[in-house]
Amino acid sequence: MFYKYNDDMPSKLVEFFESFERYEIIDGEKKPLTPPTFEGFCDHANIAKSTLYEWKKTYPEFTAAMEKCKAKQAHHIIANAMEGLVSGAFPIFMMKNCHAWVDRVETENNNTTKIQIDIDDGEL
User: Fold this and answer.
1) Which residues, listed in sequence order, are joined to residue 25 by a DSSP beta bridge?
2) What pLDDT score was predicted for residue 106?
3) Is residue 108 part of a domain?
4) What is the per-residue pLDDT for 87?
5) In this structure, is residue 109 part of a structural domain?
6) What's the whole-model pTM score?
7) Which of 35, 63, 68, 110 has a CA 20 to 30 Å removed from the CA of 55?
């Protein structure tokens, strides 16, 4: 367990995220496993989430490690969803709330408006 920031913290964070497998095989079937989370790392490191975000603001190398871990988390969630290992609201919720995904609505505007302006010579 860790309590104070040291130069090993970025690698410890990445190691924690890399330690998570996406699935396990039970009776010949893939079963999804829980994705790594920053909350999980905080629990593992015995630190508050606010400490994690303070480190992010203070140490650029820790910020880089967090970005790498966010990508690993996103891959874990997307790959399991694409393989059909998880479905429903969970992957959508995680990607919207943890990875800034948004629903995109495209609308096509086919409205045309014709404007006619009549000017008398006397009004000029």
Assistant:
1) 30
2) 84
3) no
4) 82
5) no
6) 0.76
7) 35
